[in-house]
Amino acid sequence: MIKNIQVRVSLKEEGQEGILMLKAAQFLGIPETDFTLKVLRKSIDARKQTIYFNYKLAVYSEEEAPESSTYSFDYKDV
Predict the structure, then answer these.
(1) Pick the CATH number of 2-61 from 2.60.40.1220, 3.40.50.150, 3.40.390.30, 3.30.70.2700
(2) How confident is the model over 8-51, as pLDDT tens digits?
(3) What is the domain partition of the chain in residue ranges?
(4) What is 20-74 written as a DSSP string?
(5) pLDDT computed for residue 72 by the predictor
(6) In terms of pTM, does the model score above 0.85?
(7) pLDDT score recorded for residue 34
(8) Distance between CA atoms of 64 and 18, rounded to whole angstroms?
């Protein structure tokens, strides 16, 4: 089963290993070992003093995520 969710990660949490799995597990209420995920979109919310990363994730339970599940964030000059 595939479920699309959105999670929010602070700038401090961004550097932690496995933070997306932890946030997705907390959101869904299931153990981290019961699913795989794929990053569909990543955006930055810098409207306030605390900066957040917003992720849209595809969570795959009972099946594996596709092989092409790598996501690279393209930082553009502003």
Answers:
(1) 3.30.70.2700
(2) 999 999 888 999 999 999 999 999 888 889 899 999 999 999 99
(3) 2-61
(4) HHHHHHHHHTS-GGGEEEEEEEEEEE-SSSS-EEEEEEEEEESSPPPS-------
(5) 66
(6) no
(7) 87
(8) 17
